[in-house]
Amino acid sequence: MKPSSFLFRQIWHSSLSLKVSIFMLRLLSNRLSMDNVLAAHGFQLPSKCSCCLVSSTESLRHLFLEGELTTAVWQFFGSVGGLAMNVGHVRVWLIGWWLKPVRSEKLQFVFQILPTLICWHIWKARCTAVFQGSVQRPTEVCQAIFHELKDIFLLKFGEVHRALDWPMFLELVECRPDAVFVHQVRWFAQSIGRVKLNIDGCSKGDPGAEAKALLLGLQMCAQRGFGGNLVVETDSLMLQRILLKQCQSPWSINVEVGKIELLAGGSCQFVHCYREANKVADVLANVGSTHH
Ligand SMILES: [Zn+2]
């Protein structure tokens, strides 16, 4: 696959993780270790797909296009997205999604990322079924895909779409890019006995400054005896995800993250909040930075 090719650009998308890109490369070049591929190399195994009640031979086409799980998932996203299933080849099917004409840059982004996420989650469900013996329901897989899509969208565009489901999300992205959604954002106090720490690193998007601010905050809390039962609010989604181990910590802040984990010690809850609900911390951080 040439770096300049269309497929290459879809697969090595900057918003996708490396393992997902590598998986897609193997899928599109039919190099996933499935029963039919192993059979072609002389490994004769009793072949049985793990996605259907009715037994079928596992193949690329079956797993990603025709199986019960995959059909349900594609229909869930495709029926609202305006795509009907009428092709017989995985690659053609995926290209159909990637080339779907759309009206906005954000929607184009969604349709670039989504087919890959769908394939990735179908593969994960398949591996869970094969190696752990637990079969996931289509609704579970759809929810997992939808949540990951929303997270990626948020990191890319910095918008929190309060869409509860896929049709609503699509409507928000597609039809009403300038629509105003009223959502009350304010700071909420904790119940008695719990302490809330709001942090702000005064640098948009840089998890390093946020991590330093958090570490300082935790140290201050510990000195004052508020160590346990603490709720930390940050408007940095990146930092929150790092602390929840949902994404990898950049090496430059490994030391801070390590110290934070030590101080937090499992009794600390990390919550993401809107910037508007973090105003006091934001103002203080700005005051702090002007006095350096
Ligand atoms: Zn099947």
From TrEMBL:
Pfam families linked: RVT_3, zf-RVT
RNase H type-1 domain sequence ranges: 208-286
Name of the featured protein: RNase H type-1 domain-containing protein
Domain Reverse transcriptase zinc-binding: 5-74
